[in-house]
Amino acid sequence: MLKSLACGALVIGASCTGLDGPPEPTPTPTPIPTPGAASSQAGEAPQVGDPGTAQPLAAPPPPATPGGTWTQLANVPIPAAGFQLLLTDGTVIMSEVSTNRWWRLTPDITGSYLTGTWSQIAAMPAGYAPLYFGAGVLPDGRVMIEGGEYISNSAVWTTQGAVYNPVTNTWASVTPPAGWSTI
Question: Could you tell me the strand order of the sheet in which 2-6 lies?
Fold first, then answer.
């Protein structure tokens, strides 16, 4: 099930397909071709992968209902909610637009974000409050933020970057890729 948090609202649904129109048709399964006669001899058990014993593929399950429902979250502490990332531990972090402040939404014991808990995490390094930046969750659970078209609402097209460690709740500045003048 897809859960996405955007601007203080949570969308819960099984799929994002079909949001702009009718759902796509389900493809018809094609049976595996059976070349010529069966390859096993009379009285022999068919071998695994024997093309003479191929069966048609089973029809895939019907697609999940596209879309979902939007539910307004209560008590969102962020005055200007920005970029969000789902971390590997199931929590969501969200930037506060054009500041170096970030917030964490921890789902409740049942996994619900609707009644989850908000907390402020460590601030990004001083002087780095990006807007329109590159971001991603690394395989080890850390978060990488690179660049930014604006820093504290000033157009600068920076190469600054920072990595967040959710275990230690710390940010560290990172060096931009060699030769890059903007990110």
Answer: 2-6, 9-15, 67-72
Q: Is 2 helix (H, G, I), strand (E, B) or coil?
A: strand
Return the SS3 of 18.
coil
pLDDT of residue 181: 86
Nearest to 146 by CA among 168, 124, 166: 124
135: burial class by Cβ within 10 Å (0-12, 13-18, 19+)? middle
Is residue 162 within 8 Å of residue 128, measured between CB atoms?
yes
Partners of 106 in beta bridges: 117
Q: How many CB atoms lie within 10 A of CB 102?
A: 23
DSSP symbols for 124-137: PPTT--EES-EEEE
Measured distance CA(44)–CA(140) in Å, rounded: 51
| Residue type at position 9 | A
82-109 pLDDT tens trace: 999 999 999 999 999 989 999 999 999 9
Cα 152 to Cα 60, 129, 135, 175: the distances in Å are 50, 5, 17, 20
